[in-house]
Specification:
This protein has 154 residues and is an alpha+beta fold. 40% of the residues lie in helices and 19% in strands. It is built from 6 helices and 3 strands.
């Protein structure tokens, strides 16, 4: 096993492989910044295994991936042109109901909606701190940790 995965965890992401499943299949399809975080997140599953088997597994497989770039809020695609148009339509409905019978105050052109989407997403990327939230990079390999090794992280 490459000790770099253990010694330089700030370069990689880790997922605990599902027992009895495909080696690359990790619990909840989620990778973490450290082995300790990955094991903590799967502690309930490990505890259930312990209850059923009477002891923790002799070894665990950990999928290792490169750590990708920082996640940007705009990448979640919550503020698409369609979402913004729906929001503006609802705003128009509220204004019509409360103030004017036929108002179309929020009727923007496609270009204006695209500009608004860009402004919103740029604002979110600038103002929301995503430190520690990385995209999962390229899969590297599956490593095996013995019970003695992985229990140090629990």
């Amino acid at each position: 096993m490459n000790n770099d995965y253990l010694d330089n965890q700030d370069k990689y992401m880790y997922g605990v492989c599902c027992l009895g499943g495909d080696e690359k299949e990790v619990y909840e399809n989620t990778y973490y910044n450290t082995i300790a975080d990955a094991l903590s997140a799967t502690a309930a599953a490990l505890s259930a295994i312990h209850s059923l088997a009477g002891e923790l597994p002799a070894e665990l497989k950990i999928a290792v991936c490169e750590q990708g770039d920082l996640f940007k809020p705009s990448e979640c695609n919550a503020f698409t042109e369609d979402a913004i148009t729906d929001l503006l339509d609802k705003s128009d409905e509220m204004v019509q109901f409360d103030y004017f019978s036929e108002a179309e105050l929020f009727d923007l052109t496609d270009e204006q909606i695209q500009e608004l989407r860009k402004l919103i997403n740029d604002f979110l990327d600038l103002k929301i701190d995503t430190t520690g939230y990385y995209r999962v990079g390229k899969f590297i390999e599956v490593i095996t940790l013995t019970k003695e090794q992985y229990t140090k992280y629990l």
